[in-house]
Amino acid sequence: MRRTKQRIFFYAFVSFSLFHFSNQLLSQTQNDKIALNFSLFFSQSLNDDWKMGKYESFEISSNNDFNLKLSFANNFNFESKNKISIGCKYETYENNPQNDILPTDNLIQSENTLKYLLGWKIDPYLNFGLNTQVTESFRKSQNNKIATAKFRDPATTQEGFGFALSFLNNQTNKFEINIGFTTKQTRAEFYTLLTDDKKTKEIERYKAEIGLQLKVEANYQISDAISYKGKLDATLNMHNGNQLQANDDNELKIQIWKIFGILIKIELNYNEQISRKLQYKQSTKFGIITNF
Questions:
Q1: Closest CA to 287 of 24, 7, 81, 59
Q2: Is the pLDDT of residue 116 over 80?
Q3: Model confidence, pTM
Q4: Residue 271, C-beta contacts closer than 8 angstroms, at least 6 positions apart
Q5: Torsion-angle region of residue 201: left (phi > 0), alpha (psi -120 to 50) or beta?
Q6: CA–CA separation, 266 vs 228, rounded Å?
Q7: Coil/strand/helix, residue 284
Q8: Which tens digit of pLDDT belongs to each residue from 80-93?
């Protein structure tokens, strides 16, 4: 338990700076770009009401992006999008001596796309993605913590090819639709919720899927102080009864002052294998945000 707490704090403070900055370094060609995005947010609350009694919570979270875009051989574009999000929440209750540290944001994600530019609105692409957790994840049930995942358990890799339709793609705004075929592999050791087939007696720790993928990405600079970023990723799994999996991530950044801003995030998830209910996560974070 002590090692788990130390690990959570280590990952939370690895991005030690108390600011968010975005820096783009342009290479010799205008289309080539490196974008770095680091952020750190804090929140604290003190409550005393008749429903839950007196309790205090403190949360720290860090969202870090590294994006790379290269053009080569005249008609080829390579784009790599990488994200590490980590956060933890510490809660103390007056009527409960057991204090908990729980991870909140907990994600390692890498998505790499190679696109061949035909000069039309539709361009063929190949992509590869990786998704796992930074540290252990838990859900709370009746004041008990139940582990649900850890680093590389489970881990998901995904490959695909298809066609990309771009309506708008410049330095500030982007709207693109990708349609194609995809294959996905999920590997687990102890936390087999995503890999185990309930219809069999054995516990499966590996699962392969194939299906159709629809991905919509949008970046829009609403004003000098407000920007929106959204991504819808939906897959129809044809390998196991045409199951639908969908993720919808939305992020609104509001720059109030030069070094202070608000980040509003809404995440929607639907996976028929886990639950037929729509899962959601909404957060509003205040932090030091500045651009260089």
A1: 59
A2: yes
A3: 0.76
A4: 243, 245, 246, 279
A5: alpha
A6: 12
A7: strand
A8: 999 999 988 887 87
